[in-house]
Amino acid sequence: MLRVLCADDDSLGRKVVGNLLSKWGFEPILARDGIEAWEILQQDDPPSLALLDWVMPGLSGPEICNRVRGRNSGNYTYVILLTGKSEKADLVTGLSAGADDYIVKPVFPMELQARLQTAVRLLTLQSQISSRNERLQKLHQEAVDMTLLLQQKNAELEALHDENLLLLSSIPSVFICLDGHDRITQWNCAAEKIFGKSAESMIGRHFLSVGLQWDWGAILESSFLSQNENKPVQISNVPFCTEEGKQGFLDVTLNSVSTSHCEEKGLLLLATDVTNRTTLELELERARRLESIGQLAAGIAHEMNTPMQYISHNVEYLKNSFLKMEEFFDIFQKIEEGVAPEIAVNCISLSQKHRTFLRREVPRALQQTLEGISRVTTILGAMRDFTRAGSNEPCFIDINTVVQSSIDISQHEWKYCAEFNCDLEPRLPDIPTYRGELGQVLVNLFVNAAHAIEAKFVNTGIKGVIKVRTFQEGDNVIVAIEDNGTGIPKQYYQKIFDPFFTTKDVGKGTGQGLTIVHGIVVEHHKGTIRFESKEGVGTTFFISLPVLEHASVEESELRMQ
Fold first, then answer.
1. 213: pLDDT strictly greater than 70
2. Less Cβ around it within 10 Å: N or C end of the chain?
3. Among candidate residues 273, 288, 306, the one where a domain is terminated
4. DSSP tally for the chain: helices H, then strands E
């Protein structure tokens, strides 16, 4: 309900107007004079419409208009002057004072109602305009705030972009980013340095057309896997070649990424040059193998010395026997020349004395010599296999031959404390291995088994047993090495493959043997190694190596061609 102030010093007229206002649906507020009217208009929520008599005690209608228009208020008051003056000059004075309308007395109800309706329409329009102005001002302010925010965010994005560029240019790893169409969007300084191709010449080009010389088969296979399974894929020791023809190795991680402007997934490629590390690992591997040979050298020398001694004795015997036979040759020559018959009698006597002995001992000496030569040849062959430098690619071999060579080369470690039993499956498929590394694994495990048996049966005169079995289980070839030595205490189960962990006395173990074994089996051959043990009973190690088709290795060898 709209409130209307009616200020008139005429009580009857004031009352009549008040009744009409109530009748027409307004809320009348009555004032007896100008002072009271001004007080009402100064309230926090003054009436929106005021009917002011021109002449009133205290303040006149035009004076109140001047004060109303002079105040700083957000609420607009629509003023209608009630006057008995009809001169144009008087009306101009009233309107100039701030009145919105006027009614000449006497007041006719219909005219008053019409003027009030006009006032209501104007006030409504004024309210709508004010509301829209406020909304426009609010929207304008929001637009200003949004513009400032966007400017701030743009500045932050530019700073972040600069930081990213600086970061990408400073990281030592190769960083290559592809969009959903396999076009290069990022090519950092490390990529420029390693591949010898500038970012300017690479950005925007299709990845397959840039002419990188590396293992494309592994890269494409891994990128396909990453994008289809939406997970990072890592490849180790990817061979590559620089523009100058220098070869090296990269550890590569590929990760699929989604781009806003393309439905197809992009690709993020990170690569670290591990050429020096790989070279160092190969050198370290050779050093470890030579170290193992050095540790076995005394025993191997002993193993070779024994057959060499009886070869030497037998050759000496054969030499002396040949000298005896020369006596026969001399006698036969004299008989042929017609020498006295007593020489023939002596010859027959000498022949009967030595013939039986020579027939028995000479073949035996020859057989022993051949056996000694075979034993030395076997040891030398085992040493050759054990010390053979590794290659970048595995080769297919019969696992049983590696087992047998490792038994031969470690024989001096177990021959005095254990019996060796072999149960080797003869129909095993060839498996891809690094022969020298696998030999090192088996020798380490054989030596550990011998030491465990020696510790258990020391000073008892009892020999332990080392049993080696090979068999196929699914897509894997298994080598099981069992001993009846001291076993492994349960508290050591979690530490057995840790670097530098050993249960041997100081000076008898470095704690590196099983760590090397684990690394060679798991990392180099992608196999597994586990053990079962019971303290005081013995230990069994199980080495599981995957069986691959020959074609798989042939394909991997052709990837760089």
1. yes
2. C
3. 273
4. 15, 18
